[in-house]
Amino acid sequence: PVGSGATPIVAALRVVRGSGDKQEIAYIPATEPVGGRATVADNRAKGSVLSLTAPAADAKVKVTTSAGSEGGEQAVKTYTVKAGTTLEVTPEVPSGLKGAYALTVETESGGPVHAARTLTVTEGGIKMFTVQTLPDDGGTVDV
What we know:
Layout: E1 13-17, E2 24-28, E3 38-43, E4 48-54, E5 59-65, E6 75-81, E7 85-89, E8 101-110, E9 114-123, E10 126-133
Antiparallel strand pairs: 1-2, 3-8, 4-7, 4-9, 5-6, 5-8, 9-10
């Protein structure tokens, strides 16, 4: 029965930005927590934003940005996300970045963390965007 705490709920979200002919839409599916590690490619020096949500308990996550596809040095930063909140951060851009880079999120301690990367690019006066969730990818990679 709904309300007993025993019923799982799956949701998705539609995000609309702008209005009229300058409108852009993104769809965000329900997703599992980051777990051990999750990675998303094609981040840019400008326009990449990472959202980290800790629904149940404080959590500590390590965010690694790889060297760029055409050069640069990786960067690593650790964040603490308070229970019941979403922390929005601009990923640390790799030093000497050339090209795009991969972003890896690893849960270090605490409760589960859900993550999503928003990439925004303006073209023709429209702020186009995409939102990609970061569920545990089950992979292990050197970044």
